[in-house]
Amino acid sequence: MPAQHAEILRSDAHALTACAERLRELQERLEAEGVAPQWLRESVNAHVAACVEAAADLNAAAERLNH
């Protein structure tokens, strides 16, 4: 059973990593177009960081379940 839970955690981490990448692409477009207000750019940046941190936490939890 722990292996199944670990696989779910890895899958969720992968989804969060993909989300962070999409947000980074959005961030790049916002910067390139120069039309987004500072608060929006900061919000996107905060969400990228949250996705990256959550993905790392989920991967760490998956590793613990495998040991």
Quick tags:
elongated; 0% strand; mainly alpha; 91% helix; 67 residues
Topology:
Elements (H helix, E strand, L loop, with lengths): L1 H32 L4 H29 L1
Helix pairs in contact: 1-2
Write a brief structural summary.
By secondary structure, the chain is an all-alpha fold. The protein has helices at 2-33, 38-66.
What report would you give on this structure?
- By secondary structure, this protein is mostly helical.
- The chain has one domain (2-66).
- Helices cover 91% and strands 0% of the residues.
- It contains two helices and no strands.
- Helix 1 runs antiparallel to helix 2 (38-66).
- The longest helix is centred in the N-terminal third of the chain and has 32 residues, at 2-33.
Pattern of helices and strands: HH
Estimate the mean pLDDT confidence: 95
User: Strand percentage, roughly?
Assistant: under 5%
- Structural class, from helix and strand content? mainly alpha
Shape: elongated
Rg value: 15 Å
Number of helices: 2
The CA-CA distance between the termini, in Å, is 13 Å
